[in-house]
Fold these 3 entries.
Entry 1:
Amino acid sequence: MAQARAVHDPGKILLDVALAVALGGDCLADVGMLRAEPAVFGPVASDPTVSRLVDTLAASGEKALPAIRAARAEARQRAWQLADGKAPDAGRAVTVDLDGVLVIAHSDKEDAAPTWKRTYGHHPLMGFVDHGPGGTGEPVAALLRPGNAGSNTAADHITATQLALAQLPKKYRRGRQTLIRTDSAGATHDFVAWLAQRGRWLSYSVGMVITDTIHQHVLKVPASAWSPAVEADGEIRDGAWVAELTGDVLDGWPKSMRLIVRKERPHPGAQLRLTDADGMRLSCFATNTSGRPIAELELRHRLLARAEDRSRAARATGLRNLPLHHTAQNRILVEIAQIALDLLAWMPMLALTGTARCWEPRRLRLRLFTTAGQLVTTGRRRILRLAWHWPWTSHITTALEQLALLPNPG
């Protein structure tokens, strides 16, 4: 006797939940918004079926997560191929930013703990591919951790980097085509040494804490060694300079590591730190990139600030809170949230143009996803009718035309 097959494919269920999260949902039951429109989304599983699937995947231990991540990596490679020059690897290089995201827990959950911001919840470490100034970003790693997980945890940074590299197309897992960029949370000897051991594979740009040793070396840098800092448009930044530190300040670090420091006049009313020098605000980072001006490398590192935008988008897309109690269940939800963020990154990359490519999830929902429309079937054709007076109707119609031109990924 043939075994009965499931009515709903597990992959379709996960995708439906991810779509609901992308549209603004924050719990499993929000998949009901898709269920209400079968003509658009097809058959959608019931709430009990969705819950049972999440429980089943959570109970599988580490078997489900690699399968979900492998599917995401394959979809990412196809999306980048379809992007035709608009993908984040258009410059033949990929930048991955590592950043911690605080997820608040409003009730007692497994592994929830007090955070460094005196809140309560979880502290996942995430990795985002930076799409540059013309786009947003997409998640490539999410390591769920307790709220009291330390910032300078080398093992977590290594694991997050490995997860991120596994999400990239194979040609970016080797060779100096991938930059790992992080703030001073990654400034540990073990993490930098791990990156340096893959020197032919990776470039890195890691923020460093201004220690007393670095501070003393900055004071000894002659005026002639400072170069003006630059902005993204190539203009010289007035009141900011950069220099490279050498000598015993690099003792104990990998031989290929370079230490670059920036000093700038503080903004009016800004309070200086004890490690600042001569009334100048100091910051520092390490890199193994050679052959480029230090001002250019400093600007490249400063663009890490875009990771804060990605973290904000993540909190607005499924990571505002983790609704389930057990950590194994919430790990599945974190993967679902990443799928939702992938969709919100790939859709603008493939279909939108201009400033619309940089819209964050909340703006996409307000301007595009909540547009009133009517789906009409006539003459064996489906026609989508949109309100002509909606300010962003042209963005929707142009996006649909762009998507229609794409080849079938197969």
Entry 2:
Amino acid sequence: MRFSSFTSTRASADSARTETTQGNRVQEVDILRGFALLGILLVNSLIMAGPHLGPQSGSSVGSHADNVAEWLVTALVTTKFYLLFSFLFGYSFTLQRAAADRAGKALAPRHLRRLSCLLLLGLVHGVLLFPGDVLMVYAVLSLLLFALRNTSPRTALWTAAGLVACAAACLLAWGLLTVAYSQPMPTGAFTTALERTSVARRATPGSVVSSNLQWLRDTLGWEIIYGSDMLAAILVGMIAGRSGVLASPYRYRKSMIRIVVLALPFGLTGSAFMAVCRNGPLDPRWYDVGSAVGLVTAPTLTAAYACGLLLLLPTRAGRRVADMLAPAGRMALTNYLTQSMVMALVFTGYGLAQYGRYSTAVVLTGCFVLYTTQLVVSRWLMGRVRYGPVEWLLRMATLARKP
């Protein structure tokens, strides 16, 4: 079904809801996933390409345009789109639960097989390609999601708020202690550490794997903090899924407008402060203080992005955007892993070994080229098959049979 069949009228919205329900897909979920893929790519690319630019690096390579571009990515993108993916992960859980009910199958075995497959995919992805992998985190959080599946909406929302508050409090406490008691890293020491990382990332595949393993070990504590933030978004997504919010978002148009108007300025303010702390003129020791503020305000900006896109969909331009994004969202997992594979081939010892050698502007330009290519390929492929390759594998593991 093409999204271009929708119109802005209420009758068309109800018709769309019937069609997506019958097809066992909610088009809006795919559209939002396709949109989130760009944000994930922009953030991950700057990590994979190497932290060689910015005022804190001591490098003279970056131009003013590069520094502005990195600042904008931090302010507008960082920490926003993994929340959107997490929300959609929770929403999709309700669709999987409904599918199990329709098939007369027990949910627990299906869910366990699904998260086991996610865990294995994430382990391979994190060790071989990108240590910032999120699939392993989702697999672990899936256990908690299953345990909380019957939680009342009120309890789930309060739990989500508490998780965000606790994560932000931990970051803020650590950041304030850092500001008060730690000493700034000397430029020479920073450069030495960067050169050591660059050598490891550019060398043999074995050194890349070793570097990834060290990264996974060193960031375990931060995964717990940001995992709490992700679980909060997952719980909100689960509650939204129970209500079928995305199956017919046009019923909530006034609420979505209100969210955009109120959440956008609050989210932008907090995100700008985070960018100043991370990439601005402040002492680098303010990094985690800015991250704590960003953690609190990021959900509002994420909500504003999602609602803004949903409000656009009934328009002519929105229908064209939807037709481009939905196929990429249908195979989002394949696209996510493909992004990491391409970046690993460009920046590490698996291929061209260009770690730390491209400016931010060049890296981001390459991201848009890769993302556009993925949109085109996804649309072509989804016109011929029902599932992307990795989606087919995940579905086979979930159903314990060929789809």
Entry 3:
Amino acid sequence: MANIRIHTAGGVQTLVSSPGETLHRVLARYGVFHMAPCGGEGRCHRCKVCTAGALAPPDKREAELLSDAELLAGVRMCCMARPQGDCDVFLADQTVKQSDDTAVRVKTDARQGAGCGIDIGTTTLAIYLYDRATGRKLAAVSALNRQAVYGADVISRIHAANTMGALPDLQKTVLDQLNELIALACRQAGLPAGAVAACTVAGNTTMLHFLAGLDPAGIAVAPFTPQSLFGTEYRGDQLGLVLSCPVFLAPCISAYVGGDITAGMAACNMDTDERVRLLIDVGTNGEMALAAGGRIYCLSTAAGPAFEGAHIQCGMGGVPGAVCRVTAEGVQTVGDAPPAGICGSGLLDAVALMLAQGAVDETGYLEENFPLTPDGGVYITPGDIRQIQLAKSAIRSGVERLMELARVTPDEVDEVLFAGGFGTRIRPESAAAVGLIPPALAPKCRGVGNTAGQGAVQAALDENFRDRLLALPAMCRYFELSGDERFNQLFMDNMLFEIGE
């Protein structure tokens, strides 16, 4: 047994390790957040921490991942370092930030109290408080999802729930963090938690399982059967939230088209607009919905977390310091902060530029690292290109297969909506240049922000909107791509880059 002193901007917390545990396992067991996109399995190489004290010497694999200067400074890989006695671990501060200015269009009457919209994302949690009588925003906060200690994607977290018995920890982690964020949002609004009169939660199917404490094992294996598709109401304290009001969990379409997508579809009026419109939410799973002829066609592709910064050498989320735009003249970062890494929209720009300059050929071959900043601190590696090829091919192939199934051509699509932070910053010309979307769709693209959050807020303010959410699954036709030979053919074809387009 050893005492592990965890140093953050908020102070020092002492944890106790068991013999043989890695630092990652200790942090995960205590619910202490530290980014580990691969769930502590040693694949992503992103969990470096500064340490001091009694730790076992790095083995050959860990030593190869760290420079001599890092080793001298006490830098270790959190998933590999094992305490042998008392030691100190210094974690970067993961501060809560004010979220994007999520806009809602609501028609309200004299309803009392506040409405709370919650978006439980795999990467980010967001809380929005609005006045139910006026539709005025009262507060908005968000933070990185602390479940990331179990992996960057839902499959890693399901694996942790199944093999490590981590389901109770995953549920407690999200509930504790949501309660902190709700309390913070209420303080910003100058309201007690009891003033929240209605709440709606949007999230993918796995995240909603974790929130409700349901076993998500069936989501990860064929025939991909979740325990619930939700569309159900709880009392806040039944779930373990600090809220006492009714809490509605948005309905899901399938195991991989969740309540975040139904909320987004409703927020974009895909159930009422007669135009042919395509909604794409690019994340670890590329979820998409195509409204045409009074029906909504849906599917999900396993895009991987590259566009969220995982498995990319200099990758990071869309937070201050992330390179979000790349041109021949230079780079732009989120918040105009000094460049610290690159996020999804920056990756698309960077690869489009590299293709235009001939640094990358149609097969994705890159001879050496490609610097994006003058000091070379942010760069693209050959391995990054392979990750981007996999991700862009999954999205492009999903879009093309969805249009085939709906019998819609690119020319017949009236509008393409990109949801989420990635979608807000994406440049359609770069998306087309790298092959993320068919070129004919580029002029029709626009970012629509956090549509899951928008839909959750509207459902908390307007019962009629909530009824629309409940009716949406009946309008949807879901296509499972697992084993779909046509999708596999498209995926192989779309791995190549189309030089000159």
